[in-house]
Amino acid sequence: MKTKIFTIALALSIGMLLFSCKKGGFLDSQVEVLSEENVFADSTMTFNFLNNIYWNTGLDIHPYRNTIGGFSGAGPGTSDWNDSFETLSSNATSGFSGQDAFLKGTSTSSSHPLLAMWTLMYKKIRAANKFMANVPNSPISASRKKVLIAEARFLRAFYYQMLVRYYGGVQLVGDDVSDDFPTYDYKRNPYKDCVDYIAAEYDKAAVDLPSATTLEAINYGRATSGACKAYKARLLVTAASTLFNGSPASADAAVRPFICYSANYDATLWQKAADACKAVMDLPEYALIVDNATKAGDGFFKLFTSGRKTSEYIFVYNLALAAASASDTNGGLERPFFPWTITARGAGSTTSMNPSQNVVDAFGMANGKLISDASSGFNILDPYKNRDPRFYNSIIYNQATMTSRSTTALTTINIYTDANNNPVGDGIQPYHTKTGYYTRKMCNDRLPFASLTVARALPMMRLAEMVLGYAEALNELGRVEEAVSEVNKIRNRAGITAGADNRYGIPAGVTQDQLRTLIRNEYRVEFYGEGHWYYDTRRWKTAEITEKGSLLLAKGKQNPAGSAYPFAYTYENALSMNFIAPAMYFVPIPLSEVLKSKGLLLQNPGW
Q1: Most buried among 46, 308, 330, 469, by the most CB within 10 A?
Q2: How many Cβ atoms sit within 10 Å of the Cβ of residue 361?
Q3: Three-state SS for 567?
């Protein structure tokens, strides 16, 4: 075999080594600058090689995915990479255009905004394999090597899990470290084989990784045994869900093994999912952050703003420490999400992740009832009153208050038009908001924006997902009341009123179907902005409903003086969504890879 070679470049802004591969097969490497022997003979370069494998883990939650996507190219749809992943769902939109074509259903197998994931994820997998093969020869202590190899194993499983979430079954390459395209057949492994392999890899990695309680502060954000268990649980919850368990997206016998775990419904998959979620919930290092003493739902706010390490975070993506400014790259999350009157952006700059009216309507009332419930107390003429406390910690709406740009004094955010239809303050207009809302989720609006200097961790996995996953699995197993108890742990932390019956708005005698609907809505509001809704609507096979039709905006108009309500609201179509089934349940495998496989790599249905 010829000498293994790769390129290393120090990126000063992130303090990591960037690993790049030339175009071609997904395992091809680039021209040599440093040999593997040289890199792994140096402990610093060895650590940095592993750091670079972590670099792309935050793609589902980073506000600017292009920053960590390693994406180069200028094809149709690529502007989506400048935005958050949430905007590929009905939950949000923004000023960038990559989302529009995708949600309209006009993406093609050569213009899909997620097309680059195939090559990117395999580059990460190949890098993890190279690391595990070479780190035994590095000048690092044996005990530390053991942990580093386990981290690389976790990351390899993580990137495989990303692949199967996008594509279904993919090729498993084992420990292959060859520089040239492999000599074995280039074809997909069944989805079940992929899931079973990934789960087993998480189990192996968990044995040698530290728990969150023993992880050194300097290593916060690195893999732990708890992270392995949590990602395995997510994997099994997905495999047990509708799309992959009994209701595949295609009846084609040749394709079906690659897009489902079981063609016939298998209830035991839900038991495996329940067990996996409960195993994480039982770990002593994690706990929900509950604080309703001073303000209902304050624990939900503090969860995201009280520092990088919390009892609920299981795996995170650390953002660099940055002072707030008008720069596109500074200000943590507040800079891309907050209204212009707060951030003082420059002309041509655009806000990201404007919440849709669709997701606003998903937030229920403080009493736990959905706004569609006639007994909820919802008033269409005063739509932002008495809502679920998570609404106030997630959405900036017309007349919401937050600290001003330079002081702790509260300022009112105006998002409306006057009697002459002129936008007032931060109303709907180009580059500001396309929906009549801004995002508050995960942001610190209790400190002046101009003085923010925040070390921020973005939650890629947190305990609440395990609790809701457990509730979902229990409900699917027919253990409805047990599931209610789990859902109410999340509702209690949210600050929802318990009520005289202590059921947090869930009626006695709730049926399995009713609770399923409620749990799915709970996922939507609890994880808004964290990149979950795209995947959830697919695994439930509900995207044909939720991701089709109108992505709505809200227009507030000032009423005449003396009116009972200061504003009148109308709801209009901001974007017409057209979910094309079965194609949009999966990402198309790049055509170049299909052709390279000489007909062995079968394409996903509808592409």
Answers
A1: 469
A2: 17
A3: strand
Q: pLDDT category, 218, cuts 50, 70, 90?
A: confident
Rounded Cα distance, 146 and 208, in Å = 7
Structure tokens at 32: 């040599």
CA pair distance 209, 206, nearest whole angstrom: 5
Q: Mention every residue, 6+ apart, whose C-beta is less than 8 A from residue 48.
A: 16, 17
H/E element holding 403? strand 401-403
In this structure, what DSSP letter does residue 554 have?
Answer: E
Q: Which residue has the tokens 């529009």?
A: 100
DSSP state of 579: -
Backbone angles phi, psi at 53, to 5 degrees: -70, -30
Strand order in the sheet with 567-577: 423-425, 415-417, 549-558, 567-577
Q: What is the pLDDT of residues 386-419, one digit of tens each?
A: 999 999 999 999 999 999 989 999 999 999 999 8
Question: How many angstroms separate the CA atoms of 304 and 309, rounded?
Answer: 10
Structure token digits, residue 283: 């770990």
In tens, the pLDDT along 307-325 reads: 889 999 999 999 876 555 5
Q: Would you state the structure tokens that stand for residue 604, as one six-digit string?
A: 């996903």
CA distances from 85 to 99, 113, 590 (A): 9, 10, 20
Distances (CA, A) of 266 to 116, 242, 244, 364, 442: 33, 10, 10, 33, 37
Residue 507 and residue 495: Cα distance in Å, rounded? Answer: 18
User: Considering only CA atoms, which of 192, 129, 193 is closest in space to residue 159?
Assistant: 129
Q: Are 18 and 8 in contact (CB under 8 A)?
A: yes
Q: Are 92 and 103 in contact (CB under 8 A)?
A: no
CA 456/CA 308 separation, integer angstroms: 6
Question: Whole-angstrom Cα distance, residue 195 to residue 341?
Answer: 47
- Separation CA 40–CA 155 (nearest Å): 19
d(CA 6, CA 281): 41
What SS3 state is found at 327?
coil
* CA–CA dist 97, 77 (Å, integer): 7
Helix (H, G, I), strand (E, B) or coil at 34: strand
pLDDT at 10: 30
Give the tokens for residue 87: 């905007």
CA distance 210 to 459: 19
Q: Give residue for tokens 């949210």.
A: 494
How does strand 410-412 pair with strand 401-403?
antiparallel
pTM of the model: 0.93
Peptide bond into 336 cis (omega under 30): no
CB 383 within 8 A of CB 567: no
User: φ, ψ for residue 140 (rounded to 5)?
Assistant: -120, 150
3-state secondary structure (DSSP) of residue 124: helix
CA dihedral defined by 337, 340, 346, 352, rounded to 10 degrees?
20
Q: Mean pLDDT, the chain, as a whole number?
A: 89
Burial of 115 (0-12, 13-18, 19+ CB in 10 A): buried
Nearest alpha-carbon partner for 111 in 101, 121, 122: 101
The Cα 171–Cα 194 span in angstroms is: 8
Six-digit token string for 116: 């680059």
Bridge-partner residues for 34, per DSSP?
6
Could you give the count of Cα atoms lying within 13 Å of 485 in the half-sphere of its Cβ?
Answer: 4
Provide the pLDDT confidence category of residue 183 given band limits of 50, 70 and 90: low
